[in-house]
Amino acid sequence: MPLLTDLTTQQDLSEESDKLLNYSQLCNVFYERELKLLTDCKLPAEQLAKRMASLPFYIKRAAESLISLDNPLELDTQNGTWSAKQKKIHPADKITEQENQAWLAKYVCLGLVLPVCIVEKGVTQFRLDSVDEINNKDQRFHLNEQGWFYFSGKQCEQSQSEFGEQLGLHQQKKAFKSTKDIISAACCGHQWIASDRTFQRALSLRELLLTSVINWKHLNQPLF
Q: Which pLDDT belongs to residue 4?
């Protein structure tokens, strides 16, 4: 009996050691990534100071959430990324307009995590966002970061012009129904140029936090 207890204790210590190592690796890579992003953003000093002050909280929260997830994807703690096999053609290509609109009109609700397909300079990618407002009268909904979309998935013209002015870029954006393939592509940062796969992008800290609240068993429902 004591031998069995010792083996169990050793296994528990080993698992805890692995968990601490993964946590440390994630925190380090998130700090490096976010500091570079903040440097590139060239924010005003006051705003930069606020972002820096809140950074430790969100980095720890993201690291803790990711290592405790029951997730169908593989977590690369050294690079701070999710990984899965990338589809040759982006997975929203087979979804019809009618299918997409019917799904969004039925399932869009507050807190639901949705993928947004963004095409910019010939590169197609998916980004995660969450629903924070619904306007049933005008048949549209608002995503926390990407703005207003109709239930057809098309972005509202006002949102397009405002976002374009802020970035100085031309982007095509469309919200899609949540499927395992599309959500996986968004989590892993998969990208395509025309019909060819290209390098994956690193997710922002905000997107990584969203990957921790995906309801993988019921993608048409919020996790909480």
A: 47
> Residue 15 pLDDT > 70, yes or no?
no
Q: What is the pLDDT of residue 71?
A: 87
Does the pLDDT of residue 21 top 80, yes or no? yes
Task: Give one word for 89, left, alpha or beta, with left for phi > 0 and alpha for psi -120 to 50.
Answer: beta
What pLDDT is attached to residue 35? 87
The answer, yes or no, to whether residue 148 has pLDDT greater than 70, is yes
Q: What is the pTM of this model?
A: 0.84
Mean pLDDT over all residues of the chain? 87
Q: Copy the structure tokens of residue 110.
A: 């507050």
Whether 151 contacts 140, CB under 8 Å: yes
Strand residues in 68-112 grouped as ranges (E) = 74-76, 81-83
Calculate Rg over the CA atoms of the chain: 20
Contact 67, 19 (CB under 8 A): yes
Q: b/e for 203-220, b at 16 or more Cβ within 10 A?
A: bebebbbbbbebbeeebe
Quick check: 115 and 122 in contact, CB under 8 A? Answer: no
For residue 43, how many other CB atoms are within 10 A of its CB? 14
In the chain, % helix, strand, coil (3-state, to 5) comes to 45, 20, 30
The residues, any chain, with a CB within 8 Å of residue 9's CB and separated by 6 or more, are: none
